[in-house]
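Supplementary Note 3. Input sequence used for the single-chain structure prediction.
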Amino acid sequence: MVVMGDSAIFVAAALVLGAILGSFLNALSFRFGTGVSIARGRSRCMRCSHTLVALDLVPILSYLFLRGRCRYCGTHISIQYPLVEAVAALLSLGVYLLNPNPLLYAFWLLVWLTILFIVIYDLRHFIIPWSCSLLLIGLSLLYIFILWQQGASLMGDWTIFAAGPLLALPLFLLSLVSRGQWMGWADSGFELSLGWLLGLSLGGTALMLAVWLGAAVGLLLIAYAHLPKRWSNRGRTMTMQSEIPFAPFLALGAALAYFAHVDIFSNLPIFF
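The predicted structure, written as discrete structure tokens, is reproduced below.
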């Protein structure tokens, strides 16, 4: 697809805005739950505490220019910073291409940035903040309201209401049976919102993909952990009981369903 004229400007703006918001998510991920306000003080190096100037904070480019090191003390900068900024930029672009309407773009960008933050936090702390799950649930209910305002027959199409609870139920039961050991309680809240946002067919596809991807990655990590020591640099042994965050797989499955339109259930009669 060739993008020209005003469209090219909007594409560039979406990428830049996404990268900037990704930088904000990075700062939020390090301060969230610590009692330190995101608005408190200027950004500092986490090692030498030197206040960072504007040139140190340009999304993606500063990391490349500084070669991944602090300008003042030479400490390695976490790869999380440019990765999150790049992913947020791509999400912003993808959302714009699917939703050029400004209001829809703003809505879905907020949805996907919330999902991205959940992934970041789950990878760092092995937990999904309930506040983020509740925000996403609120956005998904707003989306259902928008569909109703646009004339959707909500009472006639039972899948709109049922998608969230039906897809969240398996994760909730895993948490209930294991008392939160096999699956975190907030994962079902996360899946509840994804079901409402994607619908039963796309949401079911996203959940299925998440299970497959999670199982594949888990088995690969276990296999890697059992390689001879001379072949691996593992820091700890992976077992079937090892904890692996599931939110990244839920988010990846949702992204494939939403952006790539992967739908493995679309031909089943129940989804017509």
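The mean pLDDT is 84. DSSP finds eight helices and no strands in the chain.
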